[in-house]
Specification:
265 residues; single chain; 5 helices; globular
């Protein structure tokens, strides 16, 4: 009797141990991702404060950061190259992707990375004539495990009718589904989860957050319009997700998601 009891105990112990081992994250495959609409460096106090934005980014120890509403040497932003300035302040590698010329400079997307860029690409997104041009910044990086992943930051159109957002989402699906490289798509998508733009994206992308994780406006959020999405589903596991309680640095709250890249079995 004792023999069988001991055998059962050993079996349970080995089973639980193997389960825990299978579930334990591999630190070389963990990627900390942040998306943040920075309102071209303007805080809700009305001042221009890159140090505050940089402190928010640095505190989260992110590996990859996508920034929206990024100015490049515009008059309103004191001729600063915002993503480079934030890269210096956070000790991360910067990349700017122009969506349009604006106010004596340029305006678009920014990426900060703790990994070197393997490849970079700026995808102009379709839009109706007379409306704001939009873009998606794409980088391929090699993470600590030696695996290559794709990270894409974008900012979709803000018009109420949603037409441009829809055709922009269609374009993102077209260009980002071209292969099976594990991909993270993030940004200010200017759409709430129940609407058709997000429903289109959710067909091909996994969501990392509950629909009620509100991100805008930052002082008292009432809706979710900032997202971290990923594909394919079997290659990623969400370890942590958090809307950061920062109410002053911008009119959006930053969103942090910690993902683990899983082996391709």
């Amino acid at each position: 009797m004792n023999y069988f009891r001991s055998l059962r105990f050993l079996f349970v112990t080995l089973f639980l141990g193997s389960q825990l081992s299978a579930q334990a994250p591999d630190s070389s495959r963990i990627v900390r991702v942040l998306t943040y609409n920075i309102l071209h460096g303007k805080t809700l106090k009305g001042d221009f404060d890159l140090d505050l934005i940089a402190s928010v980014i640095s505190k989260e120890k992110s590996d990859l950061v996508a920034l929206q509403e990024v100015d490049f040497k515009t008059n309103r932003s004191k001729k600063y190259d915002l993503v480079t300035e934030l890269g210096i302040r956070t000790n991360m590698s910067p990349l700017f992707a122009r969506a349009m010329y604006y106010d004596g400079g340029e305006y678009g997307e920014g990426i900060l990375s703790n990994f070197t860029f393997l490849t970079t690409k700026n995808h102009p997104l379709p839009y109706t004539e007379g409306k704001e041009p939009r873009a998606a910044a794409e980088v391929n990086v090699v993470i600590k495990s030696g695996d290559t992943i794709r990270f894409v930051g974008t900012h979709l159109d803000h018009e109420a009718d949603g037409h441009n957002r829809y055709i922009q989402a269609e374009e993102l699906n077209k260009v980002l589904k071209r292969d099976n490289v594990p991909t993270i798509l993030v940004g200010d998508l200017n759409e709430t989860p129940e609407n058709r733009v997000m429903q289109l994206l959710f067909k091909d992308w996994e969501r990392s957050f509950a629909d009620n994780a509100f991100t805008f406006p930052s002082d008292k959020p009432t809706k979710k319009i900032d997202y971290v999405l990923f594909r394919p589903a079997h290659r990623w596991r969400v370890l942590e997700k958090r809307v950061i309680d920062e109410r002053v640095a911008s009119d959006h709250r930053p969103v942090l998601v910690v993902l683990e890249l899983l082996p391709d079995h």
